[in-house]
Write a structure and sequence with these properties.
The protein is built from one helix and 18 strands. With 232 residues, the chain is mainly beta. The longest helix has 19 residues, at 3-21. The termini are far apart.
Length: 232
């Protein structure tokens, strides 16, 4: 065979082997109903019957520590200092979660219905959650530049956002909410909602569609606004 034709084939074979070897083998873990993630970890969460974990790049396996105790899976990135926080991506498999805690730039994403009927979420220090939900009652606390994005449906949402956090659920159906937005935080929701809340100290609450905002207290430069646009 012509050497010039052989070279591209060899390159493709070597590249394919490298990609195949870059995944760790999925390993089974104990069932868990709560999740805590700390550090530069990207979690792709998949709702399945059998819990398991897979690290996308096996070369980064040494950067991750996991522990299950009292029904809570804790995933820690061992390098959290500046210039050492190389992001590690994992696939995580499990049941819908009752609790999520994410801190220090952790990112959790899911196309599945990730939360149970009653659930609590705490995001801090630049952490992010992007998920679909179908919950009767959801409590969320966001702070320190964290970000939450929800689609799906929540019957009752209790939300606190502060210190520059961002929350967006303008494509989700939320029936009723009690909300507090403060210290430069921002929240966006659909207008067809029963709401009671406070917007204070530079916080901003935005609605897409008409809203009865008579039960929203504003003071110390709190902003409540409305828009007919579908996008932020």
């Amino acid at each position: 065979m012509d050497r010039n034709k052989l070279t591209p084939i060899l390159i493709c074979i070597v590249f394919s082997l490298h990609v195949t070897q870059s995944f760790t083998q999925e390993r089974k873990i104990e069932p868990f109903g709560k999740l805590k993630v700390r550090g530069a970890v990207l979690v792709n969460y998949h709702v399945t019957k059998e819990p398991g974990i897979q690290i996308i790049d096996s070369q980064n396996e040494h950067l991750i520590k996991t522990k299950i105790k009292n029904n809570k899976l804790t995933i820690k990135h061992l390098k959290i200092k500046p210039n050492q926080n190389k992001q590690v991506e994992i696939n995580l498999y499990g049941h819908p979660l009752k609790e999520i805690v994410a801190t220090q730039a952790a990112l959790i994403k899911s196309d599945s219905v990730i939360l149970s009927d009653t659930a609590a979420v705490c995001l801090a220090s630049g952490a992010e959650l992007r998920a679909t939900v179908q919950s009767k009652e959801l409590s969320m606390s966001l702070s320190s530049g964290s970000f939450g994005y929800l689609e799906g449906e929540v019957k009752f949402l209790k939300l606190k956002a502060k210190t520059g956090a961002r929350f967006r659920a303008y494509k989700a159906t939320v029936i009723q909410t009690v909300i507090k937005v403060s210290t430069g935080a921002f929240a966006a929701l659909r207008g067809d909602i029963q709401i009671e809340g406070k917007v204070i100290t530079g916080g901003e609450l935005k609605f897409y569609g008409k809203i009865d905002d008579s039960n929203i207290k504003r003071h110390t430069h709190g902003i409540v606004s409305q828009s007919d646009d579908d996008e932020l």
